[in-house]
Specification:
Nucleoside Triphosphate Pyrophosphohydrolase, 11 strands, 4-stranded mixed β-sheet, 4-stranded antiparallel β-sheet, disordered N terminus, 5 helices
Length: 284
């Protein structure tokens, strides 16, 4: 593997907007506040408040109040805090490694006043994860060997978005059937994740799958490699959440999915989103 060296002589392309998120453009930083008498309409894309307190107050130089910070009847008030797809101008310097699943990219990124920096990261197609919940509120966990950490981990069924253009929830249903021999008739979105945004552009979506039925024996997928010896166990959701908080489970999306499901069930599933919900960070 040949990594980028100081004497690298490839002629760089001019800086241009980063296009690693082709499915979406910039999204608003905040939902506009209701218009105040005599106030000018505000921009919704790049006019960020100067501070967290200003954001709470909804106006520059304002003061946070309990009313502005309090959650509304359906959850937190919109627009106070939210991630934004807003890539900085960048140019690709090198791709020193291309693998079966991920590539390593080297970019030069213009951070404006902070200067131009070089960043290495993995290009990842994205992933889907499934909290499969049965009628008794048991969540299905799989035991699988993970070589990079040298450990057998208990995880939720999951897989890569490695088929171009495949609907993510269809990919999730395929992975659930292949890894756990289970079909689900009901699907919703639990939570969206960026598992390691400092070193990878992987985007992950965690689904809640219910109304489970077994895959007929003749139709079951033949599992290979690390998946050949996977063990599937139904675990009560409360017990799975307790295991996560006790440090007994370590797979990040698994922990996030279990806790999101526990919170969702405690709120009578008002936190769920439809499978058609926008996914700004999806790459494939």
């Amino acid at each position: 593997m040949e990594f980028l060296r100081d004497e690298h002589t490839r002629r760089p392309e001019p800086l241009e907007p980063d296009v690693r998120f082709p499915s979406t453009g910039p999204i608003p930083w905040a939902v506009p506040e209701p218009a105040r008498a005599g106030a000018e309409p505000s921009s919704t894309t790049r006019d960020q408040p100067a501070s967290w307190a200003d954001a709470q107050a909804g106006q520059p130089g304002g003061t946070a109040s309990a009313a502005s910070a309090a959650p509304g009847p359906d959850g937190p008030r919109p627009g106070l805090i939210g991630d934004v797809v807003d890539p900085r101008p960048a140019r690709r310097l090198d791709v020193p490694f291309q693998g079966r699943v991920v590539d390593v990219a080297v970019d030069e990124v213009d951070l404006g006043k902070a200067g131009v920096v070089r960043r290495e990261y993995t290009n990842h197609p994205g992933s889907v994860i499934v909290v499969a919940l049965d009628d008794d509120d048991n969540v299905l966990l799989l035991r699988q060997y993970r070589h990079p950490v040298g450990a057998f981990l208990w995880e939720l069924p999951a897989g890569l978005l490695d088929i171009d253009g495949e609907d993510p929830h269809i990919a999730a249903a395929r992975e659930l059937a292949e890894e756990a021999d289970v079909h689900a008739a009901r699907w919703e979105v639990l939570v969206d994740l960026l598992p390691s945004p400092g070193g990878s552009n992987e985007a992950a979506r965690v689904y809640l799958a219910r109304d489970l039925t077994p895959v007929p024996e003749p139709e079951r997928h033949v599992r290979e490699a690390e998946e050949a010896d996977m063990v599937a166990v139904p675990v009560p959701l409360e017990e799975a959440a307790a295991l996560a908080l006790a440090g007994r489970l370590h797979n990040g999306p698994t922990v996030a999915g279990i806790l999101a499901a526990a919170i969702g069930r405690a709120s009578s599933w008002r936190t769920l989103r439809p499978v058609t919900s926008p996914w700004e960070y999806r790459r494939n």
